[in-house]
Write a structure and sequence with these properties.
The structure is a single chain. With 406 residues, this protein is mainly α. It has one domain. The protein is built from 17 helices and no strands. Helix 15 packs antiparallel against helix 16.
Length: 406
């Protein structure tokens, strides 16, 4: 592989399709095809929003409740909220965003929240598409990626209505763009905002290692400041805030935790720290191998592997990470990691309702997919990425991966 791929991804493209050296009629044809693909994907997203809309926003009440408690002044409210309500495993940024929606009223607020969140699937897909080198932007790649990803994203934003996860993942995708453009302070603030929306997103911190070495300290300081502004007031005002980290939930039989042989009935005390440590370790290796866009994938993979629950909306995060890898890092036309995640984590659960697939097998599929993710993204392969993406300049390069024929 050559180093030209690094130059392509380090420079923001000026157009959404085509090579500027291509004949004008070919370029216009490509833009028309891409426009048609986007119409198709927005329609596809709207269809799945409609399918998941009945009973949608099932978890929205947590955000309305948390927002009300955060701005209340009774006992157990205000800066006591996490100490008094450890079940609210949600970051303060998510509560702040939920506040104006809560003020609309219970039902109107929920409806507006669901509609707003349901538009984020194509928007995040478009943000990832902007990271793809111009020479690799085939409309067929975008279409396939969107058809696979958007139905599962609807599970998160429409069915579950989990604002915190959606914000954490959106901030992480934004951080990919800022890391590429070389703004260390904004990168640190965005990665911090991700963790300030949902605590498990601390696993995305290794993305800051992709910042040029001379600027890395600025990114780390901005990250630490972003975390401190969001969380330190709660810790200083009520020392029992830390007890929220020990909140437990039942361990699902089909979880990766059970498949690994841990038979705890509830979340073991070491589990949450282990998720974050594993995610950070995997993310660090991904960056050192020059595959910095894989940080979202391996961070969410650690969650899938060790989380005691198997909620369907968890899959949206790891599929977003897989999509970032398939589109930005991989040179293959078909998004194989996204497909594998869809089949093993989502489709298998649906099939288990009508076919004799045991819960233990579902857990093994979760573990198997995470191991596949680690093998593909981190281990040396037949076509290694080559040059590291850290410390060598203003922007983190990726290596040339010339698109193969379908």
């Amino acid at each position: 592989m050559s180093s030209t791929y690094g130059a392509m991804i380090a420079t923001p493209p000026k157009a959404d399709i085509g090579d500027r050296s291509a004949p004008p009629h070919q370029d216009l044809e490509g833009e028309r095809r891409l426009r048609s693909v986007w119409w198709c994907l927005w329609t596809w997203a709207a269809l799945w929003t409609g399918i998941r809309l009945p009973g949608g926003g099932g978890s929205w009440h947590y955000f309305a409740q948390g927002s009300q408690l955060l701005f209340g002044d009774d006992q157990g409210q205000g800066l006591h909220v996490y100490a008094a309500h450890p079940e609210l495993q949600i970051g303060p940024i998510a509560f702040l965003v939920a506040t104006p929606l809560r003020l609309l009223g219970a039902t109107p607020g929920r409806i507006v929240a669901i509609i707003a969140m349901s538009t984020t699937g194509p928007l995040l897909l478009g943000a990832l598409w902007r990271l793809v080198p111009v020479s690799a932007r085939r409309p067929s790649r975008l279409l396939t990626a969107g058809l696979l990803f958007l139905p599962v994203w609807a599970e998160l934003v429409t069915h579950a209505g989990h604002l915190d996860d959606a914000l954490a993942l959106a901030f992480a995708v934004a951080a990919l763009h800022v890391v590429r453009s070389g703004n260390p302070v904004v990168a640190g603030l965005l990665v911090a905002a991700s963790a300030d929306s949902k605590p498990w997103a601390v696993a995305f911190a290794p993305l800051l290692l992709a910042v040029a070495r001379r600027d890395r300290w600025r990114a780390v300081v901005a990250y630490a400041a972003g975390l401190a502004v969001a969380w330190l007031p709660f810790l200083l005002f009520d020392g029992h805030t830390l007890t929220a980290a020990s909140f437990t939930i039942p361990t699902a039989t089909s979880s990766g935790l059970r498949a690994l042989g841990f038979t705890y009935s509830h979340t073991p005390s070491w589990d949450r720290p282990a998720q974050l440590i594993l995610g950070c370790l995997l993310g660090t290796v991904a960056v050192m191998r020059g595959r910095w866009p894989a940080v979202i994938l391996v961070g969410t993979a650690a969650r899938i592997l060790l989380d005691p629950e198997v909620y369907s909306y968890y899959t949206a995060g790891i599929l977003l990470g897989a999509l970032a890898y398939d589109l930005v890092v991989s040179d293959r036309r078909w998004p194989w990691l996204t497909t594998g995640g869809l089949l093993s984590l989502h489709v298998a659960r649906l099939v288990a309702h009508v076919a004799p697939i045991s819960l233990h097998v579902l857990g093994l599929l979760r573990v198997g997919y995470v191991l596949a993710v680690v093998a593909v993204t981190l281990l040396p392969g037949r076509r290694p990425m080559g040059r590291h993406a850290v410390g060598g300049g203003n922007r983190p390069p990726l290596e040339e991966a010339r698109p193969r024929a379908a």
